[in-house]
Amino acid sequence: MMPRLEYKDDKKSKQSIWLFLDQSLQLHKAPVLHSLCIKLGSQCPVDVEVGKWVAKAVDRFVRKLKFKLLWSADPISLPKSLYTCETLVKLKISDKVLTDFPSSPACLPSLKKLNLINVVYKDDASLIRFLVIDTPAVKYIHLTNCSKQYCLIKNMPCLDRAYISVHTYADDKLPRSLSSVLFLELDLADEMLLRCSAINFSRLTELIICPDESDWLEPLMLLLGKSPKLKKLSVDYGPTENPEDLPLSWNEPSSVPGCLSSHLEIFEWVEKYGGRVEELGFVTYILANSKCLKRATISLRSAFNLEQKQKVMKELDSIPRVSKSSQLLLK
Fold first, then answer.
1. Higher-confidence position of 157 and 189
2. Higher pLDDT, 170 or 270
3. How do strand 64-69 and strand 76-77 relate by DSSP bridges?
4. Which of 145, 164, 178, 230 is the most buried (most CB within 10 A)?
């Protein structure tokens, strides 16, 4: 009768928990299943019918479903009923899961949080059907796909937070569906950043850019021009192995983005600032034009020796700041 169930394979164990999971779900009698979390590792037999567990959860009006499959077999399909579940509020599926969207319209009217991590699409038709999945209540979306496929969702008027890591894109519907977001993190290459820079982000207050093999400075400036209410801007080189090898070009814009003149309060360079001419030009521009800036934090590349570090810190410390009350923190 427990309303919350969680099953996870132990990495250190040679046996999978799947049999206990299967038998306990057969005995489960609660009329409503609040949450079901399943994580199966490589120990799980490849002939297990895992989809029936999800089907049972949907039949029990599940509100939260997390499913991660790390076995060595081919990806498995989840039941069609999942894509029309009226009670589902949180959905997270990842790895060896085959997203096989039904031919009839998919609708998740109660969904507020969606995580799709490295999922696999059955075919092009299924992928296209995902373009029109209806999620009117969703507030958080996290899309990651290292296989360089793409996925799109429409109708997200309540979206507050989005984390997007998609490298190959064939349509601009996802960027447009993000236009109402408040918090946005982009871990992307040139193409997606360029698409986003053409969208009006009228509500965006916090933006994190994680450059990945991209000439990101000029598209970012275009994006800032489309984000009039931005209060916090972060550049995070953390996921980038060799940021010094990224192609960069910097040309000072002819007009100052409105967010710099009236809203931006925090600027962060989270990791691996290298002091390149283009990087210095960008930071100089931000500090010279952000009239409401309260704090700027810049973390230098850890590979710098003491002399290099002192030189770069001296350059940064000498940059004039239009906001006289702002703090500059160098790490």
1. 157
2. 270
3. unpaired
4. 230
pLDDT of residue 296: 95
In this prediction, residues 292-308 reach a mean pLDDT of 91
* Residue whose structure tokens are 């209060």: 231
Token pair for 26: 């057969």
Residue of 320, 329, 252, 264 whose CA lies nearest to 290? 264
Measured on CA atoms in the order 53, 58, 63, 69, is the torsion positive or negative?
A: positive
Dihedral over Cα of 207, 213, 217, 219: its sign: negative
Burial (CB < 10 A; 0-12, 13-18, 19+), residue 267, is: buried
**Contact of 51 with 26, CB cutoff 8 Å:** no
| Model pTM above 0.85 | no
189 contact partners, CB below 8 Å, separation of at least 6: 167, 212, 213, 214
Distances (CA, A) of 17 to 1, 76, 95, 230: 20, 18, 18, 47
Q: Return the structure tokens found at 258.
A: 């409105």
End-to-end CA distance of the chain: give it in Å, rounded: 53
User: Hey, what domains does the chain have and what are their CATH numbers?
Assistant: 1-73 (no CATH), 98-330 (3.80.10)
